[in-house]
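[step 3/7] fold_predict: job queued, chain A
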Amino acid sequence: MLYRLAGIRHTTYRSARQLFPIPFDRKLLGFVILLGVAAPFYLSPLHLNSYLLPWVIWTTAALGLNLLMGWAGQVHLGYAAVMAIGAYAAIHATRFGLPLEAALLVGGLASSVIGLAFGAAALRVKGLYLAVTTLAMQSIVDWTIVHVPAISGGSQATLQAPTLRLFGLPIETDAGRYWYALGLCAIVTVFLLNVSRTSFGRALVAVREKDFAAAIIGVSPFKFKLLAFWCSSFIGGVTGAILAFCYYRAITPEQFHLEVSIQVVAMVIVGGLGSVLGSYFGAGLVLLAPIFLNNWVASLASALNLSLQTDVLSQIPLVLYGGLIVGFLLFEPLGLAKIYDNVRNYFLVWPFRHAR
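[step 4/7] structure written:
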């Protein structure tokens, strides 16, 4: 078959409701999963720990925030605070003797309870007012962590994360930590892929589009906004714990400040609101683009024998990076996921014009 849609006929509701009804998409997904699982065998420890592991973890964080911003339409500028609560709660839970699996649940529940409290207070406001409310949450959590020694040990203290374990067995290799983080990312990805197929996901979209219209047809905006805050905060708390155990292995208050929240919001917006694939693209661009731009600018300056000052050389990649994000949003406001979807739809029926 020359065309990937040729010969595909849905004769049952089950086949029509598949997540990936096109065979090519299923094969591509299987190939990507195989590459991801086998990454420790063909990547060096440097690339695995410096590039792929943080990409997987921050993608999970972006997925959690995308549930709130993309599906429910609620702005959140304090997601780093949610992750900090989960990280500290999980570490203290393991120090009290709980197994890691239970500690992750404790971290997620602690984040969801506090996130739910701030979410309930924010339900009376929308838009920029909601953003300021969540920004206040970030400031309050930052202040509390720094000034309560029982949580962090003080403003300059470092809290060591216990050894990562799976069902009591220690995981001390780079590959083991990567697979642990990849497993969590896969679980969250499968959950979000199925959210839109459930009444919960459709209710979130209804609230996002017009909350008063959703209330008229029987969808409670209060209930589903709270559920969105709860689910998103739970995912953020577990992700913060995974970040502490698998990547940082020790946490300080500086690791969860406001700029981290802005970074996660950028991942969601650049990747595409309400898109699972967009969270992967956005996290990859925000995390990896500055690294590649730094290397590229340094190589170009060396090849052209340019004697640039160190501060100028360090600022050029940031300017290019900011321009890259602005360019993406100017040409495709729906994010990188929409660009991928446009290319995919073009090749679905090439050489004809329209996919639908």
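[step 5/7] annotate
The domain at 21-348 is CATH 1.10.3470 (ABC transporter involved in vitamin B12 uptake, BtuC).
The chain is about 75% helix and 0% strand.
exit 0
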